[in-house]
Amino acid sequence: xxxxxxxxxxxxxxxxxxxxxxxxxxxxxxxxxxxxxxxxxxxxxxxxxxxxxxxxxxxxxxxxxxxxxxxxxxxxxxxxxxxxxxxxxxxxxxxxxxxxxxxxx
Length: 105
Fold this sequence. Notes:
- By secondary structure, this protein is an alpha+beta fold.
- The protein has one domain: 2-Layer Sandwich (Heat Shock Protein 90), CATH 3.30.565.
- Helices cover 34% and strands 26% of the residues.
- It has three helices and four strands; from the N terminus they run H-E-E-H-H-E-E.
- The chain has a four-stranded antiparallel sheet, covered by helices on one side.
- Helix 1 (5-23) packs antiparallel against helix 3.
């Protein structure tokens, strides 16, 4: 599988931002990252069982981690980013990036 230099760096930074956010939560268990093909996109799912947070409130307060992850994913044509979280419900992040030489193409 081949990633452009920008896709590779973006994928690593998205994962790093999520892990940095987890460090601020006490007693968080990060589940294994799931990577799979969805059509022509490489998708990454990240989930934890942390204390969770109000996503709308976090976006309104311009939290850099969320803003940076979304910007990195959406700068790629057809990139997809979604996040689900709630108080005492953990957090789920789903992002998809187009990749060259996708075996599903």
